[in-house]
Amino acid sequence: MIRYDRGQGPDANWIVSEGAFDSRFLGKCEAIFAQGNGYLGQRAALEEDYVGQIRNLFVTGTFNRFADNEVTELPNLPDLTRVRILVDGRPFSMDRGRLLAYHRSLNLKTGEVVREVELETPEGKRLALEARRFVSLKDEHLLGFRLSITALAGNLDLRLESGINGQVTNTGSQHFQEGDKRLLKGRFLRMTSTTTQSGVVCALHAVHSFRLDGQPLPDAPHPVIDRRSLLIQQDARLQEGQTLVMEKLCSVHTSRDLAWHGQDISPADIEEGGLASISWAADLRYEGLFDRSRAAWARLWDNQDIEVVSDSGFDQLALRFALYHLNIMIKKDDPRVGVAAKGLTGEGYKGHSFWDTEIFILPYFTFTQPEAARSLLTYRYLTLQGARDKARENGYTGAMYPWESAWLTDGEVTPLWGAADIETGEPMKIWTGIIEQHISADIAYAVWQYYEATGDAAFMAEMGYEIILDTARFWASRATWNEEKAQFEYLGVIGPDEYKEHVDNNAFTNYMAAWNMKKALRIIRDLRQHQPDTYKRLNQLLSLDAAEPQLKKMLEGLYLPQPNQEGILPQFDGYFDLETIDLAPYKAQADVGSIYRDYNNTRLRQIQVAKQADVLVLFFLLEELFPQALKERNYHYHEARTLHDSSLSKSTHAVLASDLGLHDIAYDFFLGSARIDLGPSMRSSDMGIHAAAMGGIWQAAVYGFGGIRQTASHLRIAPHLPASWHSLRFPLVYQGQPLKIQVFQDRLRIQHLGDKPLQAEIWGQQREIAPGTVLEVEKEG
Fold it and tell me: What is the pTM of this model?
């Protein structure tokens, strides 16, 4: 049972909590309570063992392939969370005895997870357990755990077993060789393991301390070394009223760490770095380290918090929940790594990066932390060779980006086979890595949006232009000429709606490809005229002189689907010939994907039903191409046929509904997006949180209700709050200038914290915002 009201006073709308324990539903809170700092992510598995529990510790960039017939994935590092607790010789479990009180919470303000338990043992004794943990936002290699056990009624004989457990897998795939295990200086545990294929060295250290009523225990713990396991055992006898406290501090270092990049290092170098780190941490203890992390969180929230005054406190909590996860899912200073579809909270999608990054996650960073956005786009530049290789392997030129990306040199990492077909029983081929190609245009689009929002000319000259130009060359080579219709087409693709495979002329794909090629032509002309040196370099690399006439020819002849007589844009060729069925039972589903119980992929391709927004994403990204009336007609038509089985869908609908003045509908979709992970469904997040949904929540609030858009020449602001929101306050960085924007139902307030004037279109009127000033604008009408 998820609760949203635990935080009171200064903690109001800062705390997400679990109010009851049920061992059938472990994955939900393991994921949503996950902690991290972009470098590492720790899933919130409970200390003691339960069936179905998933213990995950990930370090970004440590990808490995278990076997030749499997794809690269982010490996599960040796576990640091498990503590075997024996009470009077019996393993402690909340499923044994009588659970008298239970509560577990994540404090979004500080990043600390706290669990409080009161239990009556089968023998009638009572104990209280408190478990605290954090992943340091300040010291990225460090984690802290604190476990307290109090004898409330009766004396207790305790044994605690804790350490580093390398007996972990990724759903069965063991990614690490047996590690080297050491006890150092009589107190520090070390396990050094190496991934089986990629050769990434991981050194984990842990140090423990035990205190009984504040005094160190006289007996040192006993070390236990087993296969892939290095533990300590500590015995203690608690008299009634006494409290035993175990503190455990851990450090994680790998050979893929940014600090080692470009250096010739040995496992010994990594081990020594880890030992120095844990030795320093041991002197600070849990509270000292946590204070440093808490202060880092305070600084982040000072700059990033979004404040909403709403009739429902859930709205504020949901926004902070999204911001929390957005800020722990990426290594903001490391351009060698992307964003996993589950962040660092679970094994879902194997830690791979999708178009989710550029279309749903990147805008948050572009408009709040542009240096982090630059890093994410640099990752795409560093994987450009893999995109070129994929294009060549498929018979095309230019850059064809992988549908799923991992390490820089991994190339396409989409699995080839998936779940079984419900009718044939055969495994279904996963076509996305082969024919879902719009990602190349999506990345180009994100590069240009970043440039327009930041004015980062150096990035464009060094990397951005090359991405846009080479993806445009791919689209020019990908088109097929239809002699009968005298037009170029894109045949056999998958659009954003993955229910529909091998379709022709998917509207989203065709229009985005056209945008990509049109932008490339403009860049060629501008570079030739204004940046001849850059043009010369890129011309030598990409043959721009030859590409230019080809791009022009493609644009002149490319088929762009048009609305029918009713003003509805078809999702792809033949869309209106598909069968229509009653989708009401599926739109009312408690769990996503219920339509698969009745239809397989072949049948779904014959029905007007969409997994997620498709045509409507096009209206969102290229809004200037379509009139408002057309958008509104299509919104109602296509939404009625969309099941929102993807976490990417509802936020897009929220933004568009807000733009169209459908304020109640927009708010409902905002709530739907917020509840994907944070809602009451206890199966929603078993394999990890939905990273794109976190970005979508931000977009629904800032793009939708805040009315923010980036146009070709200026910032556009046209807010429209839902009826239950009285004000919305959010930070924005535009052209390097920090702003604080506060929106009310009838006015807005912009505080310019930078040093250069900005131009903005506010409710249709051009205004200049001077640095160091506060501009207040009344909404007319």
Answer: 0.97
